[in-house]
């Protein structure tokens, strides 16, 4: 087996060997008011009363937890917290003159990061985010949107190959970019694994690219590169620690933080976020299209993949690229797209795993009519992920206001993309 080198910085964060046994989400029993909201939000039953039918809640088994963080963002009492943080490790790497630290922020981060600095919910602050990363001392500002575009090319091509029989894999094809969904499928629907796209997620692609292509274009030795994934998602910490995420010959992703933790780092470093100028990512691994931005919205991956598949299969461009049928706020969305020289392509977009279960059961029993299914664990997609800033109204117990806030984040992302 190939030896995987590790960058020698301080670390008390977990390594790949034990990621299935790590509690990425934990409950502070002293703060738990036993309201049960978290159990209602959990699609796997991983969070339960610690004393049988009652008592403060706890994550009973990390193997059953898909690390989505939906319990955390919906706990009205702030009793649930992240069990793993790489913040100290990243600060140490930023101070280490032998280490070259690169940033890799996901599309949705730039639509949530403004909230802890007083911006209205969903405000796009991408330019300030890139400036803040430079101020923090990141050597290269690379962007996960770049590999969101690559994912579309890869996943769209795989779909076409499945449709045309060029590869012998079953339909429907499922998207594979959401790590909570992937762990859910592996744990509860292993028979559906052949339906999952073989593509890595955007960050799963950018991590190894940072240490191969990135090392080449910058002239920096790969072993000196420390790659930081910045995500709206707690499950991305789990994904980065999976043993197979080492295609570059090193750990592909050295550290993962959430949007909340990036806001904390900016505040801790004393950076005046609101006064920062608008900046751009570094071009080599930073250029992207609007299709990459909508990845963070439920339906976005589907829409981008359909545009690509339509063009490749028919040889024509869609006259109107907006596929509005997959854009609504509903948990399950269906659409039929007529593609010249192919026929009707039936697709489905699901967010929230409770919504996914009937669709998965239909696929299992061979009764699903779809060719392509997008699944996102978090309601509305990554823009409302478990690593995004918390809504004050959730703390105040206003479910209605928090639902409106989630919709506003989605509207904002669509409007500016
Ligand atoms: S939502 Fe929070 S307060 Fe309510 S039971 Fe769960 S952990 Fe306890
Ligand atoms: S992180 Fe997700 S899967 Fe884990 S206990 Fe919370 S809601 Fe359940």
Describe the structure.
By secondary structure, the protein is of the alpha/beta class. The chain folds into 3 domains: 60 residues, Alpha-Beta Plaits (2-Layer Sandwich), CATH 3.30.70.20; 144 residues, 3-Layer(aba) Sandwich (Rossmann fold), CATH 3.40.50.1780; 180 residues, Fe-only Hydrogenase (Larger Subunit), Chain L, domain 3 (3-Layer(aba) Sandwich). Helix content is 35%, strand content 14%. The chain has 15 helices and 12 strands. The strands form 4 sheets. It has a 4-stranded parallel beta sheet, with helices on both faces. Strands 7-12-11-10 form a 4-stranded mixed beta sheet, with helices on both faces. Strands 1-4 form a two-stranded antiparallel ribbon. A hairpin with a 2-residue loop joins β2 and β3. α5 packs across α12. The longest helix is centred in the middle third of the chain and has 21 residues. It is globular, with a radius of gyration of 21 Å. The protein starts with 24 loop residues before the first strand and ends with a helix. The N terminus is likely disordered. It binds iron/sulfur cluster (SF4) (2 copies).
Write the layout of secondary structure elements.
Layout: E1 25-27, H1 37-41, E2 47-51, E3 54-59, H2 70-74, E4 80-82, H3 87-95, E5 100-105, H4 126-136, E6 140-141, H5 144-164, E7 173-174, H6 179-188, H7 202-211, H8 213-218, E8 225-231, H9 235-241, E9 255-258, H10 259-268, H11 290-293, H12 300-314, E10 332-339, E11 343-351, H13 353-364, E12 372-376, H14 392-395, H15 399-416
Parallel strand pairs: 5-6, 5-8, 7-12, 8-9, 11-12
Antiparallel strand pairs: 1-4, 2-3, 10-11
Helix pairs in contact: 5-7, 5-12
